Amino acid sequence: MHPLISISNLSKTYESGFQALKNVNLEIRKGEILAMLGPNGAGKTTLISIICGIVNPSAGTVTIAGNDIIRDFRATRSMIGLVPQELTTDAFETVWATTRFSRRLFGKRSDPAFLEKVLRDLSLWDKKDDMLMTLSGGMKRRVLIAKALSHEPEILFLDEPTAGVDVELRKDMWRLVETLRESGVTVILTTHYIEEAEAIADRVAVINHGEIILVEDKAELMRKLGKKQLTLELHKKLDSVPNRLSTYGLELASEGMQLIYTYDIHADRTGITALLADLAKSRIKFRDLKTTQSSLEDIFVTLVKEPT
Q1: Residues 6 or more apart from 281 whose CB is under 8 A from it?
Q2: Is the Cβ–Cβ distance between 203 and 32 less than 8 Å?
Q3: For 228-265, b where at least 16 C-beta lie within 10 A, e where not — what string?
Q4: Total-model pTM
Q5: Beta bridge partners of 252
């Protein structure tokens, strides 16, 4: 299957000399949810802005369904809905008027029933006659999503869509994202709420210093880079790990009151049984044990950590 969005050797250098993107290559599949993770200034917003036709690239190409974003800009832009980070709305417009206007900008025929459904899905229907200036920040962000969906795009970009949004509104948004995916809409989101990417994304792309450093199916990423740890709460403090236990790569923590063993849950043998036997031989007693598994956030922090 051909990718819906194909990005090839894409670079962007601003007039100041700052290089925001460096030879980015990325393919995005139709109907997937791709989470783009990266620290502030990594290049996420620049990449989205180029794909959406807001910023011109310095080099490279982007095609959407085979259409070049520069040469065939009318065709590509009509396929895209964008929810930007900034709350940019006309303060004196009503929710209904601004959503209807956004639909007409793309030459779509009037469809009040569709717009009503969008507003209801976003819990905005009872606010349809309210001026935007009277809405809370979270409601204004919902309006931005309604505007982005008003022309029935095939691709939806969400650039930090839940920034400043309370938990209840956030959950509503992610339910809507799931519904959109089920209807065939491709969703690309950037987020600082990594637990959300972990919950709903199909794939994860990590960008740092303007470069894509990893693109992977979420489940496969966590299988490859995730780790599991066994933490043993000791009866007595240890000053150091005995030599006979050195092969396990144990870590002393909590001022010698914990032993931490990191292992691969997918290996044929975890080594836990042997470890416990050797602890007994070394007369090291523990009063409790627990296991923890690394999250997507742990993996992300590891990937973007500056080399020391």
Answers
A1: 244
A2: yes
A3: bebbbebeeebeebeeebeebebebeeeebbbebebee
A4: 0.73
A5: 259
| Measured torsion, CA atoms of residues 112, 117, 121, 127, in degrees rounded to the nearest 10 | 30
Which segments of the chain does DSSP mark as H helices, in order? 44-51, 73-78, 95-105, 112-121, 137-149, 167-182, 194-200, 218-225, 272-281, 296-304
What is the structure's pLDDT at 216? 85
User: Are the CB atoms for 154 and 184 separated by under 8 Å?
Assistant: yes
Helix, strand and coil percent figures for the chain, each rounded to 5: 35, 30, 35
Q: In whole angstroms, what is the distance from residue 263 CA to residue 272 CA?
A: 9
Which positions ≥6 away from 134 have C-beta within 8 Å? none
Yes or no: is domain 5-223 CATH 3.40.50.2000?
no
- Per the prediction, the chain carries an average pLDDT of 85
**157 within 8 A of 188, measured Cβ to Cβ:** yes
pLDDT digits (tens, 9 = 90+) for 235-245: 888 888 888 88
- Looking up tokens 């065709």, which residue turns up? 75
| The CATH number fitting domain 227-304, selected from 3.40.1350, 3.30.70, 1.25.40, 3.80.10 | 3.30.70
- Cα 15 from chain centroid? 29
Residue-range domain boundaries for the chain: 5-223, 227-304
The amino acid occupying position 135 is L
